[in-house]
Design goal:
- By secondary structure, the chain is α/β, with parallel strands linked by helices.
- Helices cover 41% and strands 17% of the residues.
- It has a single domain, classed as NAD(P)-binding Rossmann-like Domain (Rossmann fold).
- It has 9 helices and 10 strands.
- A 7-stranded parallel beta sheet has the order 3-2-1-4-6-7-8, with helices on both faces. A 3-stranded antiparallel beta sheet has the order 5-9-10.
- Helix 3 runs parallel beside helix 4.
- The N and C termini lie far apart (63 Å).
Length: 291
């Protein structure tokens, strides 16, 4: 029996960890060939080495999604390695700038938007060129966040950037619809990834406790929950679904989204400023503010 994505080609950014990695495995299991872009070379190469029989349908390339040539090269790899492109998943992200609005550095703010928003623009730009030329349609999926829907689920820069991703998904969906190219955003809630818990056992425990007390669904979100949503958006069953924001949050937004500042690893950020890079392998830049 053929998989849902048998014979199709996908590009996934931020695919070496978390939600992206879960989606890579799900797409491979469903028959797709996958090109992964990530800044974390060690994690990306390890994923390919562990792919076993599926390694023939998997490629990795170091990619800074804020650099135009990196994204262009990544999309080109799909055609070069597998003969075309059907799915673009703009998923790469960082925690980004944080701290009081009076103390955030402009460079940190701009870097956040470069990674979270410009990357989506670049991925959409180069994927759309290929998809239009092929003439058979396709699916562009962008990772946004519940932080982009309401205040209280993330710091200022992250929330504003994710709101931009939601809007960009809508505007490009209108533009690309005549070419039968769907564009949608996934808005994850509290998903158990290194970006959320920082690989700190204390943060993991605190996150579990907080989720249990604030989220209606009785378990934490996992990368596979987002992979399942991405699979549906990538496949034929979502052919009439475009320009939408799919919220995958275990009912968290229904119950209320005041999460940022309540988790242990975000509780004291009003006393600090800087920028967090998540699972990219880059060290966070944290500066403590004077009391």
């Amino acid at each position: 029996m053929s998989g849902t994505l048998e014979g199709r080609v996908a590009v996934i950014t931020g695919g070496a960890s978390g939600m992206g990695k879960a989606t890579v495995h799900r797409f491979l299991d469903e028959g797709a060939s996958v090109v992964v872009g990530d800044l974390n070379v060690e994690a990306g190469e390890a994923m390919v080495a562990e792919a076993g029989d599926q390694a023939a349908r998997l490629r990795f390339q170091k990619t800074d999604v804020s650099v135009e040539q990196d994204v262009a090269s990544l999309v080109s790899m799909a055609s070069e390695a597998f003969g075309g492109l059907d799915i673009m998943f703009n998923n790469a992200g960082i925690g980004g700038a944080f701290g009081p609005i009076t103390d955030i550095e402009l460079a940190d703010w701009e870097r956040t938007f470069s990674v979270l928003v410009s990357s989506v623009f670049l991925g959409t730009k180069y994927a759309a060129r290929v998809l239009i030329d092929q003439g058979r349609g396709g699916s562009i999926i962008n990772t946004a966040s519940i932080a982009g829907q309401n205040a209280g689920a993330g710091p200022q820069a992250y929330s504003a950037a994710k709101a931009s991703v939601i809007n960009l998904s809508k505007t490009t969906a209108i533009e690309l619809a005549p070419h039968q190219i769907r564009v949608n955003a996934i808005c994850p809630g509290m998903i158990y990834t290194p970006l959320m818990h920082g690989n700190d056992d204390r943060d993991i425990e605190a996150a579990d406790e907080f989720i249990a007390s604030s989220q209606p669904w009785p378990r934490r979100g996992e990368g596979n929950d987002i992979a399942g949503a991405a699979l549906w958006l990538a496949g034929d069953d979502s052919e009439f679904f475009t320009g939408q924001s799919m919220t995958v949050d275990g009912g968290l937004t229904t119950a209320g989204t005041r999460t940022f500042g309540n988790l242990r690893n975000t509780r004291n950020l009003h006393r600090m400023t800087g920028i967090a890079y998540g699972s990219t392998g880059e060290r966070a830049d944290v500066r403590r503010l004077e009391e």
